[in-house]
Design a protein that fits this description.
With 348 residues, the protein is an alpha+beta fold. Helices cover 34% and strands 23% of the residues. It folds into 2 domains: 146 residues, 60s Ribosomal Protein L30, Chain: A (2-Layer Sandwich); 169 residues, PurM-like C-terminal domain (Phosphoribosyl-aminoimidazole Synthetase, Chain A, domain 2, Alpha-Beta Complex), CATH 3.90.650.10. The protein has a 7-stranded mixed beta sheet, with helices on both faces. Strands 3-6-4-5 form a 4-stranded mixed beta sheet. Strand 12 and strand 13 form a beta hairpin. Bound molecules: adenosine-5'-diphosphate and magnesium ion. Adenosine-5'-diphosphate binds next to helix 1, strand 4 and strand 5.
Amino acid sequence: MSIFENTERTEVSQLGEFGLIDLIKKSFPLKNSSSLLGIGDDTAVLDYGNKKTLVTKDLLTEGIHFNLMYSPLKHLGYKAVAVNLSDICAMNAIPEHIAVGLAFSNRFSLDAIEELYEGIKLACERYNIDLIGGDTTSSASGLFISVTALGAADEDKTCYRNGAHKGDLICVSGDLGGAYAGLLVLERERKVFEVDPNAKIDLTESEYVIERQLKPEPRVDIVKMLEELDIKPSSMIDISDGLASELLHICTQSGVGCRIMEDKVPIDYQTDEIMKEFGIPPITAALNGGEDYELLFTIKQDDYEKIKSRSEVSVIGYITEPNEGYQLITKDDKMFEITAQGWDHLKK
Ligand code: ADP
Ligand code: MG
């Protein structure tokens, strides 16, 4: 039996911790030659040859980072993996491995854990990732998921936040603000449902933004594209807290200023419509909404010719002298100072 074949509600306690781990192990055969040993011993053993190892970890907490009312467990598993892979991508590297730490209460049956792992599995398949270990424990209440991702890169290809120089072009992948628009819609529908559980909820008009919120994709494709185009970004970061906050990280760590143009910031049509419905300027969702998991990077001006025809990347501005500050030029040609409002979970 694999973890996905179980059909009735089974308590995890019936299986026991080791039974569960065994089930997980059987469901995740190793794919990468760098995975010498996966689940089953005290540690995994990995071999990245002569490359450098990159490691990252995120912890997701029920009620803070996700709400199980509208976040299906499968999506949650997928997202928990995706956000970590995104961090490896942000170093201009390809992720290869994850370890998953889980704590859950007896509210969660084996079927629920199975659903979570279905999402984890889907992300592992899509991005060619091996699950090589983890930890399983119980919690007094709620669900905690901690994912550690690892990847490898040549040292001279790794991109840090501190490498941007005056004159570099500022680029972003995909489009921004969608995940925040999706969150607004889901929160609105949750409130409707709380008042009237029989209310008809139609989300077809918001499918794209809801998907952006519930199922972000790490931009492994952009890392591969940059390699193909022979571009090494001078700096890079992934957009988990909104464009403003990430741009300021690059600028402060690189000791530079920036100027971006509102009309160049990529915003999807559906995001635009929904933000207007909520009476919030769409650019605010792009700047201060969170969780788009696109890549923000800077390139030398000489690389512009190589990238300009790629529709998955937008050039939104350029790096300036530090004393010029952090500027946003609006569509009506006014200048605003960019400040980071970020997505601070601790402030909520
Ligand atoms: P230890 O006592 O050394 O922490 P465990 O009994 O917790 O060992 O884990 C046994 C093996 O199962 C280890 O290889 C560990 O990495 C793996 N493992 C434990 N929990 C999970 C999980 N939730 N997902 C994937 N692998 C896991
Ligand atoms: Mg353990």
